[in-house]
Automatic annotation (TrEMBL):
Protein origin, superkingdom: Bacteria
InterPro entries found in the cross-reference section: BUG (IPR005064), Bug_dom1 (IPR042100)
Cross-referenced PANTHER family: BLR1237 PROTEIN (PTHR42928:SF5), TRICARBOXYLATE-BINDING PROTEIN (PTHR42928)
Protein name: Tripartite tricarboxylate transporter substrate binding protein
Length: 402
């Protein structure tokens, strides 16, 4: 547990100062080749088979590995250089043809930038087997916790752009690290594969706390900052509490479980985490919800009942849309400059997984509420989050000074 108290603002574990790529590169720079690749022609054998109506096969029964002919696929791939030459008036080469034709040629490592047992880890371990089945390779999950979720993403950022490594992360964490200078990377350059979930966050206190409303916390904060348990400080903490006029001292822990336990023990007084992370504690009578940051969950969300009637950040601050801009999106991404056909292949496999009846049952059993988006839509979510939080760049930078 690390406690940092700074004048005016407070911050937890920072990111990594590891310059891999200069910031400020124009959007889309370096992706001309990807744009040249014909999205529907140049693709993997697995995508071709799905569009032709072939049944899905397991990891050891993919085309080309059991003697099945790949002639139709190769025929389609053969025209790719010609199509690319026609499509690109600037004469850029098609590049990446071999990678696309053979992808995936090896196992795909699925990195979780947090310790095992948390929400991101659960999502990855539920999805990974489906990706493995669909792509025909192993998809082992590896935890790379550190720097509030930035260490694992930084590792993926620096890997070869061949789709062999993917990571599950959250745009708000990335934007915070980028805007505060705790990371020198431009995370908007990541190639996003898709979104798996989105949901509101909840401000909670210990169940027997004397604070019953957010107004109680605001009144108490007049006597000094409140102790907040976090798993690594993010923009949602800084912006929400600034708009509410509540100063806080951050007490950083290794993940949400440890941070929420600190609230239950009384080591810290308050926390802000996704609904999925706090619902169990609320049901058990250990935590009390005070405020919802984000869009109230619908009836299809099994945790909707634990925050029924809880006021929202928009209501408390009078700013419509503020909560929705801060709620948590869980996205899967791979290294910058990955060929578009590989991004598409991963995106299609993820989409297929979310349509699988067996996986839907796994979601329900694990208490997960899916909200899938394809690669293009999820890429927009990442960029939009960075753009929105840029409006708070001065506040975020001040919070991480020192």
């Amino acid at each position: 547990m690390h406690r940092l108290a700074l004048p005016g603002r407070w911050h937890g574990r920072g990111g990594l100062r590891r310059p891999v790529r200069p910031r400020g590169r124009p959007p889309g720079a370096g992706k001309e080749v990807a744009r040249c690749l014909p999205a529907r022609r140049l693709t993997s054998a697995r995508s071709y088979r799905r569009r032709q109506g072939f049944a899905r096969r397991g990891p050891m029964h993919v085309m080309g590995r059991t003697g099945t002919s790949r002639t139709p696929v190769l025929a389609a791939l053969a025209v790719a250089p010609v199509l690319c030459a026609v499509a690109c008036s600037d004469g850029a080469s098609g590049g990446g043809d071999e990678e696309c034709a053979d992808y995936p040629g090896s196992d795909i490592e699925f990195i979780v930038p947090y310790s095992a047992g948390g929400g991101f880890d659960t999502w990855a371990r539920v999805i990974a087997p489906e990706l493995a089945d669909d792509l025909g390779v192993n998809v082992p999950v590896a935890n790379r916790d550190g720097a509030g979720g930035i260490t694992g993403v930084t590792e993926v950022f620096g890997t070869r752009p061949d789709g062999s490594t993917i990571v599950i992360t959250e745009p708000g964490i990335l934007a915070t690290a980028q805007l505060t200078g705790t990371s020198d990377l431009d995370f908007a350059e990541l190639d996003v594969v898709g979104r798996v979930a989105v949901g509101p966050e909840v401000i909670v206190v210990r169940a027997d706390s004397e604070w019953d409303t957010i107004e109680d916390v605001q009144a108490a904060a007049g006597g000094g900052p409140v102790l907040m348990g976090t798993g690594g400080l993010a923009a949602v903490n800084i912006i929400s509490f600034d708009e509410l006029g509540i100063p806080f001292e951050n007490v950083s822990h290794d993940g949400s479980s440890e941070a929420l336990l600190s609230v239950v023990r009384g080591d810290t007084a308050i926390a802000l985490f996704p609904l999925a992370s706090v619902a169990e504690g609320i049901r058990a009578g250990d935590l009390k919800p005070l405020l919802l940051v984000g869009t109230p969950p619908g009836e299809d969300n099994p945790d909707a009942d634990v925050v029924a009637g809880v006021p929202t950040l928009d209501e408390a601050t009078g700013q419509d849309g503020l909560g929705a801009a801060l709620e948590q999106h869980r996205i899967v991404a791979t290294a910058p400059d990955t060929p578009q056909c590989i991004v598409e292949s991963l995106s299609e496999s993820m989409a297929a997984a979310f349509q699988d009846d067996g996986l839907v049952g796994d979601f329900q059993e694990a208490g997960l509420v899916p909200a899938h988006m394809d690669a293009a839509e999820a890429q927009e979510v990442l960029q939009s989050t960075i753009d929105t939080l840029t409006e708070y760049e001065d506040l975020l930078s001040q919070s991480f000074e020192g």
